[in-house]
Write a structure and sequence with these properties.
Elements lengths: L18 H10 L9 H20 L1 H11 L4 E4 L5 E3 L7 H25 L7 H25 L5 H4 L5 E3 L12 H15 L10
Antiparallel strand pairs: 1-2, 1-3
Helix pairs in contact: 2-5, 3-4, 3-5, 4-5, 4-7, 5-7
Length: 203
C-alpha cells in the first residue's frame, strides 16, 4: 500500500477570462448613488427655467419696495437758481438708499433659496444655477424699476421758482446687485451640506 497521495483533482476549466468579459461584468453591476447624468439634467431643465422666470418676476415687487422705502429729500427752488433743503439734510442719503436695496435683495435671496430647496424632486445642479441666475436678474430688474419710478428733477422743474423737487433714487454701489444671488446660493448650499443622504432627499 503506497503512502503517497494520489494526484489532486484537476480544477474545472472555466475557460479564458478576457478583459472584455471583466468590463461587461463591471458595467452590469448597479452602482449605488450613481449620478443620473444627462438624463437628470434634461428632466430638471424645464422646472429650472420656470424657477428662473418666477424669480425674475420677483424683481418687480422688490423694485416697488425699494422705491417706497428708500429715503429721499425734498428741496425748494430759489430765485437765484439754487435750492433750499426742506427739513434736515443727511450726508448719508445715498448710502441709505444702497442699504435699503441690499436688505431687500438679501430678503429676496433668503426666500428664493428656501423655495428652491423645497423643490424636492428637482434638487441638484440645474436648480442651483437657475437660482443664481434668477435672483441676479431679479436684482437688475428691481434696480432699473426703482430708478425709473424715482427720477430726479428735470431742468424745467429746477427753473420753476418756489416749486418743490425731490432727489432721485439711485444705486451708488453696483456690488449690491450680487447680494441676492449670494444669499440664495448660500442658503441652498448650507441646506445641501445638512442633507442626510447623498441624493439630497430627491425623490
Amino acid at each position: 500500500m503506497s503512502d503517497t497521495a494520489g494526484p489532486l483533482p484537476a480544477a474545472a476549466d472555466t475557460g479564458p477570462v478576457t478583459t472584455t468579459g471583466r468590463r461587461a461584468d463591471r458595467r452590469s453591476r448597479p452602482v449605488a448613488g450613481r449620478w443620473g447624468g444627462v438624463a437628470e439634467l434634461r428632466a430638471d431643465l424645464v422646472p429650472a427655467l420656470r424657477l428662473t422666470a418666477a424669480l425674475v418676476l420677483t424683481g418687480i415687487p422688490a423694485g416697488l419696495l425699494w422705491w417706497a422705502l428708500a429715503p429721499r429729500e425734498d428741496y425748494r427752488v430759489l430765485a437765484d437758481g439754487g435750492v433750499e433743503a426742506l427739513g434736515d439734510t443727511s450726508a448719508e442719503l445715498f448710502a441709505a438708499d444702497d442699504a435699503v436695496f441690499v436688505l431687500i435683495l438679501a430678503g429676496l435671496g433668503l426666500l428664493a433659496g428656501i423655495a428652491a430647496w423645497s423643490l424636492r424632486r428637482r434638487r441638484g445642479v440645474t436648480v442651483l444655477v437657475a437660482l443664481a441666475v434668477g435672483t441676479g436678474l431679479a436684482g437688475l430688474l428691481a434696480w432699473q424699476l426703482g430708478e425709473l419710478l424715482g427720477p430726479g428733477p428735470t431742468a424745467d422743474e429746477l427753473s420753476d421758482v418756489g416749486s418743490t423737487v425731490t432727489t432721485r433714487l439711485e444705486l451708488a454701489s453696483m456690488p449690491a446687485l450680487a447680494v441676492g444671488p449670494f444669499v440664495a446660493v448660500l442658503v441652498y448650499v448650507v441646506a445641501t451640506l445638512l442633507a442626510a443622504g447623498e441624493d439630497l432627499g430627491r425623490d
